[in-house]
Design the sequence.
């Protein structure tokens, strides 16, 4: 396992390099940085000074080398909105995003797996039909529409929860439920399929013939094998969940990285956008590595080589 982790860590800089290259290209394609920093009342002298300070008077390869060196040092430039370094601005908002992601992911995993197990155990019964139908319907609901519906019902009509913002744990409920619906239906259907696949295997039939209860068969024989596809699926969906947080944070005015990115795009605050993209990419790489390690610990048959 140590060799696998070391190899993944060695390849991580390559992934971050490609992200930095894509960010650099997008920044150059979307417009002249001078137009972002200076208004229409600029003078030719100001333009020349800014081009020299931003190294825009150099060739593109030299500009990229300088940009890459700044990224390695954690210098993404000065935020136009906050008049300070961009990276601390992103890191300040990162805690709220991690909090939202952890709650939403926990909700999706726990509820999704339990519902999937129940659907598989009661196959072709009313519970299976209801749970499977809700899962399929949940996959078709856009998160922005679901968020608006939840605000309308639980915040405006019933008055149980706040509409937006942050503060107490009550502010976290609606955003977490909305974001969890990105993955929860998939966990239900995937767990159901995986459990049904193993529940008819010969070793499970043998366990039943020995007089083990259904709970013992599920916990000791079926779930340890059926959970592997679910964990692998989780690793593939971390990036999707982070992408969904941008919409969710915007709907509920949650002060996280996603909302910061949206606001920075509208304000054309390029340094903040570049810093946020880099941090999110790094988080995805680390989370996928942790999921692979967890998968090998759950199933000893998996060898990370």
Sequence:
């Amino acid at each position: 396992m140590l060799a696998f982790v070391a190899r993944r860590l060695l390849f991580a800089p390559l992934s971050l390099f490609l992200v930095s290259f894509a960010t650099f290209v997008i920044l150059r394609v979307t417009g002249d940085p001078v137009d972002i920093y200076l208004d229409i009342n600029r003078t030719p002298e100001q333009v020349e000074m800014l081009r020299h300070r931003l190294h825009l008077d150099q060739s593109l390869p030299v500009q990229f080398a300088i940009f890459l060196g700044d990224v390695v040092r954690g210098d993404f430039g000065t935020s136009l909105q906050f008049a300070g370094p961009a990276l601390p601005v992103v890191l300040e908002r990162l805690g709220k995003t991690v909090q939202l992601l952890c709650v939403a992911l926990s909700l999706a995993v726990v509820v999704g797996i339990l519902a999937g197990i129940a659907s598989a155990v009661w196959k072709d019964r009313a519970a299976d039909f209801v749970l499977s139908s809700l899962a399929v319907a949940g996959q078709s609901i856009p998160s922005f529409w679901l968020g608006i519906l939840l605000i309308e019902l639980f915040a405006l009509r019933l008055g149980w929860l706040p509409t937006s913002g942050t503060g107490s744990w009550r502010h976290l409920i609606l955003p977490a439920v909305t974001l969890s619906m990105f993955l929860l239906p998939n966990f239900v259907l995937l767990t159901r399929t995986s459990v049904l696949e193993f529940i008819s295997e010969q070793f499970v039939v043998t366990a039943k013939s020995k007089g083990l209860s259904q709970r013992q068969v599920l916990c000791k024989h079926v779930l340890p094998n059926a959970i592997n596809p679910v964990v692998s699926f989780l690793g593939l969906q971390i990036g999707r969940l982070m992408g969904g947080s941008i919409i969710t944070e915007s709907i509920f005015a949650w002060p996280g990285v996603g909302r910061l990115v949206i606001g920075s795009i509208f304000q054309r605050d390029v340094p903040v956008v570049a810093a946020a993209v880099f941090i999110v990419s790094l988080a995805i790489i680390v989370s996928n590595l942790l999921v692979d390690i967890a998968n090998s610990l759950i199933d000893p048959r998996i060898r990370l080589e």
Q: What stands out?
A: The mean pLDDT is 81. The chain has two domains: 2-72, 89-274.
